[in-house]
Amino acid sequence: MRLGYFEREGKVFAGMVNGDMVYPLRGGFGGRPEPEGYPLAALKVLAPCRPSKIVCVGLNYRDHARELGYPFPEEPVLFLKPPTTVIGPEEAIRYPAMARQVDYEAELAVVIGKIARHVRPEEAAAYILGYTCANDVTARDLQRKDGQWTRAKSFDTFCPLGPFIVTAFDPGDCTISLYLNGERRQHSSTKELIFNVAYLVSFISAVMTLYPEDVILTGTPSGVGPLKPGDSVVVEIEGIGKLRNHVVAA
């Protein structure tokens, strides 16, 4: 299934996408679809989930670690993005005035389906609602200046997600790419992940409780680079789709 949030005539609802139609779900993602749907083209597609937190994993692709000349981490390196960073497809990434270098980072996002605490890796799939595309936008100069990542990762609009949550998806070997103004800048496979999705759900849930619609960003591959106002940026993940956003000056 493809799931998400949609807006019609000022009303926001959770829905299931079937072909070019969207069927509202009674009671949210766990509910039954309404018999009558709406044409997808007549709706505004919003960010596909509403997380209480976004848990991110740094340096989790082998090709990215090799590109930077860093050793592979012995355990996942975690940081957080606030929910105010989330935007949906076709929305604008705002380039903050205090930043001088803002980078794109294409990522596979895991969307949690039910409360997860101390989950074993072999149980992880039962706690995952599905997967979507993400862009972990980062003010790189501020990351270097601060010596830690909170400010650099936390500006409003710095976590585009979408277009939909795909529930039947194998995260073990899928292609992930990023296109900047039509030119491919990142291209890799989740085979390059140092810590796989099941391990990440287990590791993170041993640290903090994960709630439905919380998001785990699984890391970015090699090829990270800068954005500027006026740019168009597309994250594409095989089997999920394309997440398109544009950049404007804040």
UniProtKB/TrEMBL annotation:
The keyword Metal-binding applies. Coiled coil: none annotated. SUPFAM superfamilies: FAH. Pfam families: FAA_hydrolase, Rv2993c-like_N. One of its GO terms (biological process) is carboxylic acid metabolic process. Residues 53-248 form the Fumarylacetoacetase-like C-terminal domain. One of its GO terms (molecular function) is isomerase activity. Keywords: Metal-binding. The keyword Metal-binding applies. Belongs to the FAH family. This is 2-keto-4-pentenoate hydratase/2-oxohepta-3-ene-1,7-dioic acid hydratase in catechol pathway.
